[in-house]
Amino acid sequence: MITVLRIGHRPQRDKRVTTHVALVARAFGAKSVLVNSNDPKLEATINAVSENFGGDMEITTGTGVFGPIKKFEGLKVHLTMYGVPLSKFIEEYEKMDKDQDVLLIVGAEKVPRQVYEMVDHNVAVSNQPHSEIAALALILDRMTGGAWEDLELSDGKFTIIPDDRGKNVVSNAWVPTPEECIKLNEDNGVSEEVIAHQKAVAKLAKAIAFALKEKGVDIDVEVVEAGALLHDIGRAVTHGPLHAMEGAAIVDEAGVDKRVVACVLNHIGAGLEPDEARSLGLPETEFIPLTIEEKVIAHSDNLNFGKEMVRLEQVLHKCDEKQLDRAAIKIKALHEELEGLLGTSLNEFEVN
Ligand code: SAM
Predict the structure, then answer these.
(1) pLDDT tens digits for range 161-175
(2) Is 126 touching ligand 1 by the criterion CB < 6 Å?
(3) 208 and 292 share a domain?
(4) Is 18 in the pocket of ligand 1 (CB under 6 A)?
(5) Domain of 228: which CATH number?
(6) In the prediction, which pLDDT does 111 show?
(7) Alpha-carbon distance 124 to 115, whole Å?
């Protein structure tokens, strides 16, 4: 196990370089990074990268300089332009026990003399002054024999598919739990009122989803619940029709499963055709709920005014008041489609 100790870190001045030291450590197989001075922002940045792209490298800041070196049990290596050549060190390292833990120390500002004396080896990656980021990458490459090429950092929200023509990133199927959905809403500044509405919609949508499942319909209840709890997250940005697009962008950016993103995007009424979308200030394209999960969420939203479940007649009356004739036709059709699948009236639907 390799640990990297970054010393001399000044949070304001070295922000970028220390971030890159930690990112190199992570990408090239280190299991832990220690930073002498306290820097919660740095910790958050690196943890966010691991959340998005996987791996479980730990970062701890505020460790001090001498403590971690003193108590480290294993091989201690300080990277410095004044040390012995890297190849010479690697020759010796090849003969050592490969299971031993290794502490790699890199500096920022002037490194105290004691550090040179406390370590087992002072190693130079050329005897010219350059960068701790480069020195660290090169020694990690040599010490691991290039094993970083096959390193799989799993459990991230995204996987990068190597592509020589551009960016190919796939979102790993992260269907947030109800708690994670509420946290996403809160983190994005969604009001309590909107969260309460989403909870009410989710309650109905989940009940309909379970009932449909019992009828043999292939429906993912977790996707329905997450989509319902997030469908109005874009209201943190705007209460206009664009909230669906804004919300979809927020949840997509957070790495949420594309099926949930589609539920957020296509929840307005019973869908919008391109000309309707344009007249509402949206791009001239279809925003139609197509999957059963999208349909259940869109209609559970139609059947909820705020936190209160209403009958179809009330929804149609509201459409009438707003002269939304086309919306009314589609909402009625969606209502009937779901009732057909459920084999029961939605107006009489019991939600516990
Ligand atoms: N002036 C500092 C000193 O007296 O140690 C060095 C500053 S240098 C920008 C920051 C760090 O980069 C060093 O502490 C060392 O860890 C690393 N570094 C720079 N050049 C290196 C080299 N040729 N070989 C190994 N490490 C190097």
Answers:
(1) 999 999 998 878 789
(2) yes
(3) yes
(4) no
(5) 1.10.3210
(6) 96
(7) 15
Nearest to 260 by CA among 249, 269, 268, 270: 249
112 shares a domain with 19: yes
For ligand 1, is residue 162 a contact (CB within 6 Å)? no
Closest CA to 102 of 126, 120, 125: 120
Angle between the 192-214 and 292-302 helix axes, to the nearest 10 degrees?
A: 130
DSSP category for residue 292: H
Q: What average pLDDT does the segment 243-260 reach?
A: 94
Range of the domain at 214: 178-348
pTM to 2 decimal places: 0.61
Does residue 139 surpass a pLDDT of 90?
A: yes
Specify the number of domains making up the chain. Answer: 2
Of the ranges 15-24, 66-75, 160-169, 326-335, which one carries the lowest mean pLDDT score?
A: 160-169
* The pair of three-digit structure tokens given for residue 337, joined into one six-digit string: 């489609």
- Number of other CB atoms surrounding residue 152 within 10 Å: 8
